UniProtKB/TrEMBL annotation:
Protein's name according to its UniProt entry: RagB/SusD family nutrient uptake outer membrane protein
Species this protein is from: Flavihumibacter petaseus NBRC 106054
Organism superkingdom: Bacteria
Keywords (A to Z) from UniProt: Cell outer membrane, Membrane, Signal
Family according to the record: Belongs to the SusD family.
Record domain RagB/SusD: where: 280-543
Major location (coarse): membrane
Length: 544
């Protein structure tokens, strides 16, 4: 894969932060709160550096919605497919157990990072036409900024509900702070941004620009936003466009290759954040400084102690049960769903197969023994491994089979990109929209593509007598396909729209903290720090 764009993200983000990040710099010769527009926005290089800075808050290795130490932890911890190890960071434990409040540091960080991206996107949208580029190129940069702004609003709406709608750069302290707009309006802004950006983004990018958003990403998130707002007709149309020319997305043959550095920007990739071996691997904490490391730190958080990981999660017994529900046909090269071997580690001989090893030939017994002290922190109800003992493999570096591979102090820290949108998710979103529009045949076609890649046989309409039966299959496949990809919680909220329904379902799956679920937990509270800063903003009604 091309590494140039990875490096440009670092250098350009650091450079433009001096101009658009309101930080102290030698450019600030008078009022430090005013942009030096007379020295910026002069050419395409300026605009390109500015657009790189818009990506930065969402793709920082540790912080923000997709960062390994914030959104990746917290959004995944809300689901019933994973258990969060007790004794870790208090903020994450609070979220996982539904005892978080407005002072939670993780949700505050997510909220702030998304608004940082919005602010920077607005700067590009309002100033790109000053750089003297031709009209088409200017629109392309503005479309890129609109997509990233739309993505930020989409994530804010789906996770925080009513929030301020900031679509322009504040010109005074009076308009710097806004009251919250209804969640529906935030979604509509995201939809408008995705729709507008799709018109001017390219279908593909040259190698040097891989990682920048494309028309396909805009349509995928447009369809996802329509689905979240129950506009199923438009969702099916938007997502359906990705199934035909000029797009050529396709599921890759080996599911696991989506989560390694082997085949980045493959045919399944719709949008991925770019990471690489830049700067010291030991300095991921410096946020947007020029020396910030740009490795992928998810293996450090997810991996077993035997591999140098911090071991913050264990797959739930519910997930294991779901994976074991359907065996592959007789004569297949594996007993279980192919995805299971890429997602989990277990002692194969416990289920009649030949044992495997990981991390320089460590057995599963060795991995489990190294993790047992942490596992013992769970309450007894979570230590009844009736489905068997399982550890996470997905998003670790176990696929390398190198000792200590999950440790970012090791010789081989991860440089794998992070998939934000895969074609597999597009298919499952399209299937859900089609099913809600009574297009069961189209939904089944999508689901069968997912099933067959997993080594399972295709189903027929006769296998699903009712729409509800097909919906259960869709939900089952989405659980297995998108495990640990920050989707499960928002899916559950959509499928179980009342707190009573969701609480009962989650309790049945032994989700941590399920007994504490209330209607307010469908969103995060507006962070206390934001309320203290913005006197026009009040707490979401459910959290008052």
């Amino acid at each position: 894969m091309n590494k140039i764009f990875k490096r440009s993200f670092i250098t350009l983000s650091a450079t433009v932060a001096l101009v658009v990040g309101c930080k102290k710099s030698f450019l600030e010769t008078s009022n430090p709160n005013q942009l030096t527009e007379d020295k910026f926005w002069k050419n395409e290089a300026d605009v390109k550096s500015a657009i790189a800075s818009v990506y930065s808050p969402m793709r920082l290795p540790l912080s923000g919605y997709f960062g390994a130490f914030r959104g990746y932890q917290d959004i995944n911890a809300l689901g019933d497919d994973v258990l969060t190890i007790p004794g870790g960071e208090p903020s994450t434990i609070q979220v996982a157990n539904f005892i978080n409040d407005a002072k939670n540091g993780d949700t505050q960080d997510i909220f702030a990072k998304l608004y940082s991206a919005i602010y920077r996107a607005n700067l590009v949208i309002e100033n790109a036409d000053k750089a003297g580029m031709d009209e088409a190129l200017t629109r392309s940069y503005q479309a890129e900024a609109k997509f990233l702004r739309g993505l930020s609003f989409f994530l804010l709406a789906s996770n925080f509900g009513d929030v301020p709608l900031k679509t322009s750069v504040a010109q005074s302290s009076d308009d710097a702070f806004l009251p919250a707009s209804p969640e529906a309006e935030i979604y509509q802004q995201a939809i408008a941004d995705f729709d507008a950006s799709a018109a001017d983004l390219p279908v593909s990018r040259p190698d040097a620009d891989k990682g920048r958003v494309t028309q396909g990403a805009a349509l995928a998130f447009l369809g996802k936003a329509y689905l979240y707002t129950k506009d199923y007709a438009n969702a099916e149309v938007a997502l359906g466009k990705l199934l035909t020319a000029p797009f050529s997305y396709e599921l890759i043959s080996n599911y696991e290759d989506n989560f390694t550095d082997k085949t980045e920007f493959n045919s399944e990739s719709v949008l991925e954040w770019v990471y690489g071996p830049f700067n010291s691997q030991y300095s991921p904490w410096n946020e947007e400084s020029g020396g910030n490391a740009m490795y992928n730190y998810r293996p450090q958080l997810t991996g077993s102690p035997a591999s140098g990981g911090w071991f913050k999660y264990i797959p739930s017994q519910f997930l294991a049960k779901e994976f074991k529900k359907e065996l592959r046909p007789g004569g297949s090269d594996t007993k279980f769903d192919k995805r299971m071997y890429a997602t989990l580690m277990w002692k194969y001989s416990d289920f009649g197969e030949t044992d495997a090893t990981w991390y320089d030939d460590k057995s599963f017994d060795e991995l489990w023994a190294a993790a047992s002290t942490s596992i013992d922190r769970f309450e007894p109800v979570y230590k009844d491994f009736s489905e068997g003992k399982f550890l996470n493999k997905k998003f670790t570096s176990a696929w390398r089979n190198v000792g200590g591979a999950d440790n970012y102090w090791s010789a081989v820290p991860s440089t794998a990109n992070v998939e934000v949108m895969r074609f597999a998710e597009v298919l499952l979103l399209h299937a859900e929209a089609a099913l809600m529009n009574s297009h069961s045949d189209a939904a089944l076609t999508d689901i069968n593509r997912i099933r067959q890649r997993a080594g399972l046989t295709a189903k027929t309409a006769a296998d699903f007598p009712t729409t509800a039966d097909l919906m259960k299959e869709l939900q089952h496949q989405k659980l297995l396909e998108l495990y640990f990809e920050q989707n499960r919680w928002n899916d559950l909220k959509r499928w179980y729209p009342t707190a009573a329904e969701l609480k009962a379902y989650m309790a049945g799956n032994l989700k941590q903290g399920a007994d504490k679920i209330e209607a307010k937990h469908y969103i995060f509270p507006i962070p206390a720090a934001e309320l203290q800063t913005n006197n026009k903003l009040s707490q979401n009604a459910l959290w008052k």
